[in-house]
Automatic annotation (TrEMBL):
Organism: Homalodisca liturata
Signal peptide: 1-19
Pfam families, alphabetized: Endonuclease_NS
Keywords linked to the UniProt accession: Signal
Record-annotated DNA/RNA non-specific endonuclease/pyrophosphatase/phosphodiesterase domain positions: 150-242
Domain of life according to the entry: Eukaryota
Protein name: DNA/RNA non-specific endonuclease/pyrophosphatase/phosphodiesterase domain-containing protein
SUPFAM superfamilies: His-Me finger endonucleases (SSF54060)
A single GO molecular function term of this UniProt record: metal ion binding
Lineage: Eukaryota, Metazoa, Ecdysozoa, Arthropoda, Hexapoda
């Protein structure tokens, strides 16, 4: 009986070591920090966002041997460096990441260009109610003919007013999020979202003074250090990946 017990313990230890050495780990901060791609998984033939684990305050995507990830670099003339295509199926093979039979070298999973700009999909669905009623719009990415939403926006088109935004918060991964100052320039959406309105001029300090004077009778409240600034309804810090 004693011999059987010792044998079982040895077997468990060996199997555990094989599992650990056969997995592949991707660090958001070290492996994907420059020109970061979209990192996706396939669930029942559908693409879904993958969220990292947190290890030592860093985001880590762990992949068991034999499992796959989908790396995507959407956008004009944008490709995965390792294969020169917009997408790549990446497999973990006993501790090594491979695309097909070729091992992925350092930096190979990065995109040739930044993909910081998302796309806009205007639905036929309504949101809100009364004067606060709007059209549901989604910000996201088109990958392999699949639409991957990031943020839902309730926007009143006739008034040119955004009422609210909604996005899931991956609280278990926030501590391992990529922290970056990289941010694209202010980008106006399709003109049909702001009929007869120019968002570029609405937020200038000159325009603010005109509105304050019209409503309050004075624009003295505004000066070089006191003014209204554009902000995010969906905070940048709520998202895990830089893209």
């Amino acid at each position: 009986m004693l011999v059987v017990t010792v044998t079982l313990v040895v077997v468990v230890i060996v199997q555990s070591a094989q599992c650990k050495t056969g997995s592949c780990n991707l660090s958001l901060q070290k492996d994907l920090s420059q020109n970061e791609p979209l990192v996706l998984t396939v669930v029942q033939d559908n693409l879904e966002w993958i969220m990292p684990e947190v290890r030592n305050n860093q985001g880590v995507i762990s992949l068991e041997t034999g499992k796959h990830l989908v790396i995507a670099c959407p956008g004009s003339k944008n490709n995965v460096k390792a294969n020169g295509e917009e997408t790549a199926y990446v497999k973990c093979d006993r501790g090594s990441l491979k695309i097909g039979s070729k091992r992925v070298t350092e930096g190979g999973l990065r995109c040739t260009h930044s993909i910081a700009d998302s796309e806009i999909w205007i639905s036929q669905l309504s949101c809100g109610s009364g004067i606060y009623k709007g059209t549901m719009i989604q910000l996201g990415y088109q990958v392999m003919k699949e639409w991957l939403p990031l943020v839902e926006v309730c926007h009143n088109i006739s008034r040119g007013v955004t009422l609210y935004t909604y996005h899931p918060l991956a609280g278990h991964s926030i501590e391992g999020a990529v922290k970056s100052n990289q941010r694209g320039n202010f980008k106006i959406g399709p003109t049909e979202l702001f009929p007869g309105i120019s968002p570029n001029t609405l937020y200038t300090q000159k325009r603010q003074k005109e509105v304050f004077k019209k409503i309050l009778g004075s624009s003295s409240y505004l000066n070089g250090s006191n003014f209204l600034a554009k902000g995010h309804l969906s905070p940048d810090a709520d998202f895990i990946f830089n893209s």
